[in-house]
Amino acid sequence: MTETVVAVELSQNPDDEAAAAAIAVPDSREVDELEVARELVRQAREAGVSLTGPGGLLKAMTKTVIETALDEELSEHLGYDRHDPAGYGSGNSRNGTRAKTVLTDACGQIEIDVPRDRAGQLRTRDRQEASTPPDRC
C-alpha cells in the first residue's frame, strides 16, 4: 500500500492552522522503520516462521533489541566499541556473556545473553527487579 501526501496551503485563519497541524505526515525515519518491519515479516512468512509464539519473529526481535541495548551500554561504560584497539590494555574489557531469563510485557520469558566486563563494574540502567504477577503463577 502506498500513501500519498498532499500539500496543504495554510491560510491566516487559526482554525485552518490547527487542522493542518493535526494532519500526521510521517518523517523519513518512520517510513524506514515501517519498510524494515514489512521486509522482516515478509522474510519470516517465506521461511515459515510464525510471527508470535516461542520460536516467533517477535520474540527473536525482542531478544535482539535487548541484547543490542545491553552491548551498547557496555560500550558506553568501557569507552570503546567491540574489537576496537583502543580497549587493549585499558584495565577493563569485555568478558563474555552470561545467560539470563527476562520477563517482557509482549513476549513473556526470553533467554538473553548479558555482556560482562572484567572488573564487574557495569550495572545496567534498564533493569527492574523481577516480580511474578499473580496471574502468571
TrEMBL record:
Residues 78-99, 114-137 are annotated as: Disordered. InterPro entries: Transposase_mutator (IPR001207). The keyword Signal does not apply. Keywords: DNA recombination, DNA-binding, Transposable element, Transposition. GO terms for molecular function: DNA binding; transposase activity. Pfam families: Transposase_mut (PF00872). It comes from the Bacteria. GO terms for biological process: DNA transposition. PANTHER family: MUTATOR FAMILY TRANSPOSASE, TRANSPOSASE FOR INSERTION SEQUENCE ELEMENT IS1081. Required for the transposition of the insertion element. Belongs to the transposase mutator family. This is Mutator family transposase. It comes from Mycolicibacterium poriferae. The lineage of its organism: Bacteria, Bacillati, Actinomycetota, Actinomycetes, Mycobacteriales.
